Amino acid sequence: TARPRAxxxxxxxxxxxEGMLYDREGEKIHILNITALAIWKACDGTxxxxxxxDVVGRRFTSIDGKDIRGDIGKLLGDFEExxxxxx
Length: 87
What we know:
The structure is a single chain. This protein is of the alpha+beta class. Helices cover 40% and strands 18% of the residues. It is built from three helices and three strands, in the order βββααα. The protein has a three-stranded antiparallel β-sheet with strand order 1-2-3. The longest helix has 15 residues, at 68-82.
């Protein structure tokens, strides 16, 4: 997805630094670590991959920028596979 958008019908509960997404339709629960949660929240349909990289880079200054593009790309693919994104 060029500008990924998180599904608005998922119920998000933040527990500490992690998130739990509940998909009522599919009756599934998805656990997101701190980084995945930040990226999922940033998937608002206005940011492309470079925009998401910028969000993560500002939020997590200790992340190695060398592999971040591939890591976020893989995570977005995982989000799509799990049905966490619209479209």
